[in-house]
Amino acid sequence: MMSRSKSPATPAQSAPSERAVTDPFEILAEYERKSLAHVAGLPEQLDAPGLWRGVGYRVGKRRLASGFDEVVEIMPLPQVTPVPGAQPWMLGVANIRGSLLPVVDLKQFLEGERTVLHESQRVLIVRQPGGDVAVTIDELFGQRSFNDEQALSAEDLSSQQLAEGRYAHFIDRAYRLADVSWGIFSLDRLARTPEFRQAAA
């Protein structure tokens, strides 16, 4: 009799946690917790001083990475409606879940060369004063982690040509991992750049 009286309570006790994970954000957070649970060295390595973590991607020939706190979302390139009279690097606006977001060709803004769009194109949704903005990237690499030992010196950063031209305004440090140099690109600084804000507002 005692065991029978306890058994109905078990589903009721687990119900709140089941309802909680129906929220999309909670589901993603749970995936991340499970993923990190299998990372060797946790929690010491993930919380180690000097460890930097973010999302890695490619723009043109450069491998870049930006902090997780600067990227609101990563998604396929949405359907874009051109805006007459806009800057060449302003692709147009897209309706994303009921909100109109400007879509910017990041490569063209930085290098003056238009991105060749393709089916697997991705955009980073970036927080901007007055509303979010979507910027195109050429390739997504996912999560990247670097430590102080992998940091490039100012001389190395210059020799790697990661921070040439307009990139110099947004990259002030870089790391080298497995013979590949990664520039840490400040999307927050990009979103606060007057020229970018005026066209992408």
Q: Order of strands across the biggest sheet?
A: 8-1-2-10-9
Q: Say how many strands there are.
A: 10
Figure out the total of helices.
7
User: Any low-confidence stretches, pLDDT <50, length ≥5?
Assistant: 1-20, 35-44
Please, what is the CATH homologous superfamily of the largest domain? CheA-289, Domain 4
Quaternary state reads: single chain
Q: Give me the Rg, rounded.
A: 21 Å
Order of helices and strands: HHHEEEEEHEEEHEEHH
The percent of residues in helical segments reads 25-40%
Distance between the termini: 67 Å
Largest sheet: 5 strands, mixed
Our estimate of the beta-strand percent is 25-35%
The third-level CATH topology of the largest domain is OB fold (Dihydrolipoamide Acetyltransferase, E2P)
CATH C-level class of the largest domain is Mainly Beta
Supply the number of structural domains. 2
